[in-house]
């Protein structure tokens, strides 16, 4: 039997930050942490579902494209929630669609974009951070910026 411990969460004024171990369980752990945090903020179930999809995609990408740990940061604002996943890879993600995507992947960022997430990629001293901003009113601008 496998036991999965929830990693410590660092609380800030409007958010949570947690370092996730490199594990096939990391996306599930990140989803549980996110669901609990959003519930305490009174976020609607539809927005929670969208946020969980974003978290799952971004954390899974770190497992596929990075060799180190990742950090999940959740931040709440008046009408938005920001989900940031930082990892140790310096390779920036590209949004692919159509023939550029294949059976091995490549559709995730386009899917997040299509569902209304505003995506921002930032280089960090240790790798990169990908931030998805979801409008809790359902009116998020689309796009990816760097």
UniProtKB/TrEMBL annotation:
Keyword Repeat found: no
TM region(s), chain numbering: none
Keywords from the UniProt entry: ATP-binding, Kinase, Nucleotide-binding, Serine/threonine-protein kinase, Transferase
CDD domains: HATPase_RsbW-like (cd16936)
The Histidine kinase/HSP90-like ATPase domain, residue ranges: 21-133
InterPro entries: Anti-sigma-factor_SerPK, HATPase_C_sf, HATPase_dom
GO molecular function, one term: ATP binding
Name by which UniProt lists this protein: ATP-binding protein
């Amino acid at each position: 039997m496998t036991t999965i411990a929830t990693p410590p969460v660092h609380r800030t004024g409007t958010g949570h930050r947690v370092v996730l171990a490199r594990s096939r369980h990391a996306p599930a752990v990140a989803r549980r942490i996110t669901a609990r945090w959003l519930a305490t903020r009174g976020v609607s179930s539809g927005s929670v579902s969208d946020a969980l999809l974003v978290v799952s995609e971004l954390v899974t990408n770190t497992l596929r494209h990075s060799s180190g740990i990742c950090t999940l940061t959740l931040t709440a604002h008046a009408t938005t929630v920001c989900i940031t996943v930082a990892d140790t890879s310096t390779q920036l993600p590209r949004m692919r669609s159509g023939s550029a995507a294949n059976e091995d992947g490549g559709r995730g960022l386009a899917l997040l974009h299509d569902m209304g997430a505003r995506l921002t990629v930032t280089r960090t001293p240790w790798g990169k951070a990908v931030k998805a901003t979801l409008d809790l009113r359902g009116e998020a601008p689309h796009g990816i910026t760097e």
